[in-house]
Amino acid sequence: MKLQLALDDITLIDGLVLAEKVKDDIDIIEIGTPFIIEEGMRAVREFKKYFPDKEILADTKIMDAGAYESEECFKAGADICTVLGTTDILTIKGCLEAAQKYGKQVMVDMICVDNVPKRVAEIEAAGVDFIGVHVGVDQQAVGITPLDKLAEMKKASKQSKISVAGGINPETVKRYKELGADVIIVGGGITHAADPVAAAHAIAEKMR
Question: Where residue 89 falls among pLDDT bands split at 50, 70, 90?
Answer without folding.
Answer: very high
